[in-house]
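Quick start: read one record
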Amino acid sequence: MPQRPEPLLPLGLRLSGRHVVVVGGGPVALRRVGALLLARAKVTLVSPAAVAALEDLADRDQIDWLRRPYEPGDLQGAWLAMACTADAAVNAEVLAAADEARVFCLRADDASGASAWMPATGRSGQATISVHGNRDPHTAAALRDVAIAAVETALRQDPTLSANRRAPVAGFGRVTLVGGGPGDPELLTLKGFQALADADVVVIDRLAPLAVLDGLRDGVEIIDVSKIPRGRFTPQKEINEILVSRAREGRVVVRLKGGDPFVFGRGMEEVIACNEAGVPVEVIPGVTSAAAAPALAGIPLTHRGISQGFTVVTGHAAPDDPRSTLDWDALARGGTTLVVLMGVDTLASIVGALVDAGREGDTPVACVMDAGLPSQEVVLTTLAAIVSSGAPPELRSPAVTVIGAVAAFAAG
């Protein structure tokens, strides 16, 4: 007689503030860590090496990283463990230690002996849909997609809602540039979610909503092309080549970027590369952090009687840098709210240029860090304070800086 499936007790785990150990530093670990951070777990990563996005999370103190191989005792105090290495022996050792410590453990390479299984998971608004398929990830993912579609239909009372799946053109795959928003997966557009559901390859940035990786179909290739300030850097030419080469293999490629692809995201360079290679390409706009970060901090970029407009600039090049093409004198006199992206390292220089050009020293400045994430913080100061004491010591990347009277509305 055929063996009956082992019965499961499906649970929703409340991991906020609880210790979870992830062993391994590759793409599999990345997709698990993204989901754990969304659940506000306290994550410890154990691996001698890690992909760039995980390294960046460690550098920003979002996770703890033990930069060495797994050792006995690493699971001490953990509520949950995840064995995500490419070494079956190491994964087996982690699972055995977890069983001995009575800690539930997922094993990425072989779920048959694990004490916990990760379901196929998706999100729609406030709903989280999780499906187990008796260790068959294809069945689970298919049922998950059906369930998500049903939930979206019910929520929107729109029976015509469905994913728009299009076949490759002329033997090629295709590339879709998806704006992921500021980091919260719920701020990713529905069309962006649908594109990810159809993806064979996801090429991701460090500031994209990492939690959505956990909802991808089994077998999706994840390529981390993060550009870390003063750290690891993937050249744009290499990114373009990845997009084109994977599409020419007949695969559906999603380029998942933070914010909006066309707002300091080099999206047009990638579109041009695809067009020149004859690869079909589509752009799905995202919620730019230039607007989202202030809004999430309670700052209206425009407000009647205070600000009639806003100007978005990059602070990548300081005002005295020969690469800067901005007229900082005009920006100082313009009277609009000034939004500075990528300006953590150059903020003091930018503020000095604005004050030298006549901007009042008591002008409020709000720096919104990790916008849309559980770790979001806001620092409120003034131009004069930065001139006298430098940038706020707690300022860190990524941050969006708002300069103008409306910044005083910031919820600290």
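The longest strand covers residues 174-179.
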